[in-house]
Specification:
Layout (H helix, E strand, L loop, with lengths): L2 E5 L6 H16 L4 E5 L4 H10 L15 E4 L2 E5 H9 L3 H4 L8 H5 L1
Parallel strand pairs: 1-2
Antiparallel strand pairs: 1-3, 3-4
Length: about 110
């Protein structure tokens, strides 16, 4: 399973840049393997992202904005959903990953 974070490297929006940095920084800090997919460089990647976001999760107007997060082809969510999972300490299940063993488990 590969976590894929769809980003826009050439976004003019400071908010989008900050949210992308938050997701990527969190994954790096927690040593969660992921792949960044830049939707501004390859049109096919942007179209793939749009196509694989469930209809009920699409915005009422316009296109979904990055970052969008997938586990392989399974949609995990957008930044708001990621932020909520971070606040609730449920990022592992949000990303569809198996829980990591705790220090206590690895000592047993």
């Amino acid at each position: 399973m590969v976590i894929r974070v769809f980003i826009a490297s050439s976004s003019g929006s400071v908010l989008i840049k900050k949210t992308q940095q938050d997701v990527v920084g969190f994954l790096e800090a927690n040593k969660i393997e992921f792949e960044e997919v830049d939707i501004t460089m390859v049109e096919d990647q942007r179209m793939w992202m749009y196509k694989h976001i469930p209809k009920e999760r699409l915005p009422a107007k316009g296109n979904p904005l990055p970052p969008q997060i997938f586990n392989d082809e399974q949609y995990c969510g957008d930044y708001e959903a990621f932020f909520d999972s971070k606040e609730n300490n449920t990022v592992t299940s949000f990303l569809g990953l198996n829980p990591r063993p705790s220090v206590k488990d690895s000592e047993s």
